[in-house]
Amino acid sequence: MPLRIADLLARADLALSAGYDVPPPLRERAIEAATVSDLLRPGKWLQGGELLMTIGLLLPDDTDGCREYVRDVAGGGAACLALGLGHDLPYREAPRPLVDAAREAGLPLLTVPDEVPFIAVTKAVFAARADERRAALHRSFATQRRLTAAAVGGGLPTVLREWTAATGVGATVLDPLGRPLATGAGPGDDVPPPDAARDLIDRVAAQGLRTSATSAADGHHLEVQPLGARRLRGLLLLTGRPDGAARAVVPGLVSLLSLELERRHLRDEPERRRRSALLTELLADAGPTAERTGDLLVSAGLTAGRVRGVAVEAPGGPDGAARAAAAQDLAADLALALPGGLVRVRGGVIEALAAEEADVREVLGRFAPGRPAGIGPATAPVSARVSLRQATGLLGVSRATGEPAEARSSGTSRLLLDLGDRPTLLGYADTVLGPLDLDDHGAELVATLTAWLETGGAWDATSRRLGVHRHTVRNRLDKAMALTGRHLDDPDDRFDLWLATRIRRGTAP
Fold it and tell me: In whole angstroms, what is the distance from residue 497 CA to residue 433 CA?
């Protein structure tokens, strides 16, 4: 328990008295330190929580002066003001202006008798503070022993329950995606859900093991600590403000929980190998039948009607063993995040299957930021190897663009154009369409040519899109071909015109 003003008043050896009838709430103020000052403006020398003692050598004798002095002391954060009394001191009793000013400001005022030196009060305060710290240290050691015993004999829930019982602070362990794994709350305990700390959880998870964070949400003090040894294995959410003794134990709690999560990771290795073998069977050249494919996916917990292949370039490095370990760690993260956990490492590529509705980009942004990655098109499970083959083929595109490349309809040309140098592409388009630009109706001719190419050469569809007669479309295209020297029935010319119009229109389909 912290030292309170009431504790000082209760000590017979100090014989302190209240300068006025101090209300009980003010008597409960904690005393952090004791200091002596006879300055007229001591506030700027205080840090907060002090018992400020003075003999009143420079104390004003008028009401306004005392009010200003008390405001300065209270503004500096002093918990209490003590006036020394004595025959050889300026005051033998607390002056009325000071008493009134202290009462008005809500600042407790004590008097120190002549026979008690200030040093005795100072020693008493610091001795009590030392006892408080010693008791907190004993509580920390006792709590740490309880947690260690729980970690030896139980798992995550046991450790968290011991923590909550010893500190009164709620605790929940989450996986790297913020999903609860275990909690220390009892059945009737009121613990705010992890959703209340979603932004905090996402911010810490994005930084891996590099940072922790605290905040207040809905009146709750929230704290998130990362868990894991070499990489993020989970998150610790604390709901409540730990006191000094509990705060000292938080690093030990984080270490014990990290150790337990690393043990879980090792225990799950056989299951990851089994799922890797399932994926290998699904992707075999002579793949299983549609019925067998469905059974395999169901056994892995993946029941989606359509799946897509995902390919991620494995981390590199000069050390082969380190590369392999890093690839396996990344594969384990993806197996945790993607429903079904169908992930394998093949050569320098991590391959996975994901349900069509899975947010693959979010998963890659969390666990493989900046790594080249390809996302295949959604397909029936029996054709999963086709989707994965396309995902692997997109790794080069992703490596060039710096972001995951996704196969989607009407998207191949966009990916290829994104790889090109923009000034060079525009120069190519100007070379092909330049003769049209010089014509008085050049914009009209280019728009008509673009519409005709995008409708696959359909005259009626082009006329409807432009709102003109089909003969007008034909006349414009005849003029455009005459100006450019191209022929719509020549495949090479037609491709050049299509590519030039696509470049002019940017990457929009």
Answer: 8
The identity of residue 148, as a single letter, is T
Cα–Cα distance measured from residue 76 to residue 49, given in angstroms and rounded to the nearest whole number: 9
**Predicted confidence (pLDDT) per residue in 192-221, tens digit:** 555 668 888 888 888 888 889 888 766 678
- Residues 291-320 have pLDDT tens digits of 888 888 888 788 778 888 899 998 876 777
* Distant-in-sequence contacts of 21-27, Cβ < 8 A, 24+ apart: 22/108, 22/109, 26/106, 26/108, 27/108
β-pairing, 234-239 vs 220-227, is antiparallel
Q: Identity (one letter) of the amino acid at 449?
A: L
Nearby residues of 176 by Cβ (< 8 Å), 6 or more positions away? 205, 232, 233, 234, 235, 333, 336, 337, 366, 367
Query: Nearest-CA neighbor of 141 among 219, 249, 40, 229?
Result: 249
Q: Which helix H or strand E contains 74, and what residues bound it?
A: helix 63-75
CA 370 to chain centre: 17
Stated pTM of the model: 0.63
